[in-house]
């Protein structure tokens, strides 16, 4: 049963979780408008290790939310994860941020046909992807400029759930009866456990020296 430290800093949520196997041991996270990840990330990691009485030797891998998202947040999270992996001599696991966000949709939404996570990319643009209700990828991760009919292909086929900080702008223009907007949902390390375990078991590790976040758009900076 591997113990995996998971880091999510792609947006306003600075989130750290510790998993044994796929079971959540501890979660520490804070969401702020100031994107203060550089101040909180290392402190949160120290706290989670202290509170769970975990030593670096007890951790088998570090999982990082790889993007897309905030350029600055992704850089901070990646640099931290790579430093820990190098210092502790353990592998790095990278997980798509949009899939982490989509993972929040659980069995309670049994009548959902499609899951569409959205991350704000400024103006009327979002980072998005489309998944079926069993999380099979339908549309690959992309940057999308929203119009009222952007997702009609899926909405016309059945109930579709939208979540993430990018949904507000689409909610204002989409009036389709099959659109359900799940508000105040952000990527969190809490949803990284099962995905990280799958990659760990498959030994799908990143090259620590050469790994870079998946920005999708090079110039998505925080103000």
Automatic annotation (TrEMBL):
InterPro entries: ATPase_NBD, Gcp-like_dom, T6A_TsaB. Keywords: Transferase. It comes from the Bacteria. CDD domains: ASKHA_NBD_TsaB. GO terms for biological process: tRNA threonylcarbamoyladenosine modification. GO terms for cellular component: cytosol. One of its GO terms (molecular function) is transferase activity. Residues 36-148 form the Gcp-like domain. This is tRNA (Adenosine(37)-N6)-threonylcarbamoyltransferase complex dimerization subunit type 1 TsaB. It comes from Capnocytophaga gingivalis. The lineage of its organism: Bacteria, Pseudomonadati, Bacteroidota, Flavobacteriia, Flavobacteriales. The gene is tsaB.
């Amino acid at each position: 049963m591997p113990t995996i430290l998971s880091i999510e800093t792609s947006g306003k949520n600075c989130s750290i979780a510790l998993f044994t196997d796929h079971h959540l041991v501890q979660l520490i996270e804070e969401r702020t408008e100031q994107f203060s990840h550089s101040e909180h990330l290392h402190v949160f990691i120290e706290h989670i290790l202290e509170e769970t009485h975990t030593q670096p030797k007890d951790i088998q891998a570090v999982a990082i939310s790889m993007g897309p998202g905030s350029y600055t947040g992704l850089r901070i999270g990646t640099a931290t994860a790579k430093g820990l992996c190098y210092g502790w001599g353990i592998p790095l696991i990278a997980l798509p941020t949009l899939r982490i966000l989509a993972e929040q949709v659980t069995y309670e939404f049994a009548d959902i046909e499609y899951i569409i996570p959205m991350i704000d990319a400024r103006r009327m643009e979002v980072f998005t992807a489309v998944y079926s209700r069993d999380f099979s990828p339908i549309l690959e991760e992309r940057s999308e400029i929203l119009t009222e009919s952007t997702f009609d292909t899926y909405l016309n086929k059945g109930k579709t759930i939208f979540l993430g900080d990018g949904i507000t702008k689409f909610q204002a223009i989409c009036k389709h009866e099959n659109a359900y907007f799940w508000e105040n949902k952000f990527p969190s390390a809490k949803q990284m456990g099962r995905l990280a375990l799958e990659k760990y078991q498959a030994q799908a590790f990143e090259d620590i020296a050469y790994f870079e976040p998946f920005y999708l758009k090079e110039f998505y900076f925080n103000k």
